[in-house]
């Protein structure tokens, strides 16, 4: 198992380009199975989870052509859904949580599917009820084989309907939308997720011939069509990487320019980092972060301690809560971090405490961070990455710390961040990957 060895305390400088959005990629790539015609996707990130999904799509019989470093053409004219019954599929799908996104397109186009329980990060319960309840309302019938741990689904007669989702699940909404575009009649989805990734999916489907209205709102209306055609699509830059790089610049007192950010699609993310005292300039579509010796947390208008919490879009994304928490450790002031959506994502703060951070973990969802105001530098330690986002937060902490840190289990980080060590080296980081 590989390890990152980091000598911290160095100021970084330069430009960095965010990869294509991982969470969008998992939806968009799955949607290529909805049509027999060629679909070209650009800005595809070269990361483990995305590559595994591309491999699965190819195994299903879709013709996968790599047109360039970040561009692929998919032609799903000869899909073999019998592959879903094989042990190979079960093993690969069970190891990749994103494999659940294949379900909607396969059910819509072929009327049946088999799916093992998917894998993914150990960040608490991530239920699939929204996906399955949505499919059932469209007319799908589920049968769970407890011995084989497989879901067998019959969706031979999908019909449009009205549904009120039990939660604004991004992947759940995307999966239901992909199933509904080929269903008979009209589907109305209320309390739909409206993240930029989902907006991108809906816009792509419309270019393929779908009829989706209400894009960008929590009320989607989908008129089913008989078939979809081909198209070309470019993924957004990854907003989680952009937020991570903003936090990296602040923690390491670095001067960094983040290129091609699609600032118009970042929502409240820049504003949250500004509340942490981080200065930034928008230069066209780039974000320039100047070197800052100190940064001070805002308080609320009445003087009470700032609270940063996650929420469904257009609220603050849960994937950046760990970054905000780490950045706050060196700020002037205090902040309450409230991670509402996953109960285990704060279970990395013990490593930060070992590094010298002042954090009180109130419960699985809340942590009170008392900023050190740079009066005491974090110190390097040996630690393990528990999941993708916490792993990068720990990496940022290590880059700002005095001495040497080692982070094991970096396969988790590789699942979400493309060649992160090489890209950080280009900024001047002292980071080494040890096999």
TrEMBL record:
Active site (catalytic residues): 121
The EC number(s) this enzyme carries: 2.5.1.7
InterPro entries for this protein: Enolpyruvate_Tfrase_dom, Enolpyruvate_Tfrase_sf, MurA_subfamily, RNA3'P_cycl/enolpyr_Trfase_a/b, UDP_GlcNAc_COvinyl_MurA
GO molecular function: UDP-N-acetylglucosamine 1-carboxyvinyltransferase activity
The keyword Cell cycle belongs to this UniProt entry's keyword annotation: yes
GO cellular component annotations of the record: cytoplasm
Biological processes per GO annotation: cell division; cell wall organization; peptidoglycan biosynthetic process; regulation of cell shape; UDP-N-acetylgalactosamine biosynthetic process
Keywords, comma-separated and alphabetical: Cell cycle, Cell division, Cell shape, Cell wall biogenesis/degradation, Cytoplasm, Peptidoglycan synthesis, Transferase
Reaction it catalyzes: phosphoenolpyruvate + UDP-N-acetyl-alpha-D-glucosamine = UDP-N-acetyl-3-O-(1-carboxyvinyl)-alpha-D-glucosamine + phosphate
Keyword Cell cycle attributed: yes
Binding site residues for UDP-N-acetyl-alpha-D-glucosamine: 97, 319, 341
Binding site for phosphoenolpyruvate: 22-23
Transmembrane segments: none
Annotated Enolpyruvate transferase domain residues: 7-423
Subcellular location(s) of the protein: Cytoplasm
Pathway(s) served: Cell wall biogenesis; peptidoglycan biosynthesis
NCBIfam families assigned to the protein according to its UniProt record, in alphabetical order: murA (TIGR01072), PRK09369.1 (NF006873)
Family per similarity comment: Belongs to the EPSP synthase family. MurA subfamily.
Function: Cell wall formation. Adds enolpyruvyl to UDP-N-acetylglucosamine.
Name assigned to this protein: UDP-N-acetylglucosamine 1-carboxyvinyltransferase
Organism: Chryseolinea soli
Gene: murA
């Amino acid at each position: 198992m590989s390890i990152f060895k980091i000598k911290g305390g160095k100021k970084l400088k330069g430009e960095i380009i965010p990869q294509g959005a991982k969470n969008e990629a998992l939806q968009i790539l799955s949607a290529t199975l909805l049509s027999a015609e060629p679909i070209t996707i650009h800005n595809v990130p070269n990361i483990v989870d995305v590559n595994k999904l591309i491999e699965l799509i190819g195994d299903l019989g879709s013709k996968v052509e790599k047109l360039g470093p970040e561009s692929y053409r998919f032609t799903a004219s000869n899909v073999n859904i019998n592959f879903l019954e094989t042990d190979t599929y079960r093993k690969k799908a069970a190891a990749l949580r994103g494999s659940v996104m294949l379900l909607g397109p396969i059910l819509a186009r072929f009327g049946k599917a088999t799916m093992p329980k998917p894998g993914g990060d150990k960040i608490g319960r991530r239920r699939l009820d929204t996906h399955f309840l949505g499919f059932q309302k469209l007319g799908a019938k589920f049968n769970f084989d407890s011995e084989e741990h497989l879901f067998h689904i019959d969706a031979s007669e999908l019909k449009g309907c009205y549904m009120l989702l039990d939660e604004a699940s991004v992947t759940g909404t995307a999966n239901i939308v992909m199933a509904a575009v080929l269903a008979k009649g009209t589907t109305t989805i209320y309390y739909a997720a409206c993240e930029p990734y989902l907006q991108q999916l809906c816009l792509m489907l419309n270019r393929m011939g779908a009829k989706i209205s209400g894009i960008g709102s929590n009320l989607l209306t989908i008129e089913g069509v008989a078939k979809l055609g081909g198209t070309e699509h470019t993924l957004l830059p990854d907003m989680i990487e952009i937020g991570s790089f903003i936090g990296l610049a602040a923690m390491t007192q670095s001067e960094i320019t983040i290129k091609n950010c699609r600032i118009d699609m970042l929502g409240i993310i820049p504003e949250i980092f500004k509340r942490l005292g981080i200065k930034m300039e928008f230069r066209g579509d780039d974000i320039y972060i100047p070197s800052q010796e100190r940064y001070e947390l805002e308080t609320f208008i009445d003087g009470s301690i700032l609270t940063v919490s996650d929420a469904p879009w257009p609220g603050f994304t849960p994937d950046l809560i760990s970054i905000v928490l780490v950045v706050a450790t060196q700020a002037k002031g205090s902040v309450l971090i409230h991670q509402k959506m996953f109960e285990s994502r704060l279970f990395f703060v013990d490593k930060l405490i070992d590094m010298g951070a002042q954090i009180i973990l109130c419960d699985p969802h809340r942590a009170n961070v008392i900023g050190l105001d740079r009066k005491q530098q974090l110190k390097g330690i040996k630690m393990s990455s528990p999941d993708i986002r916490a792993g990068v937060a720990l990496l940022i902490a290590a880059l700002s710390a005095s001495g040497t840190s080692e982070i094991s289990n970096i396969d988790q980080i590789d699942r979400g961040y493309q060649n992160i060590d090489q890209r950080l080296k280009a900024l001047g980081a002292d980071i080494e990957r040890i096999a």
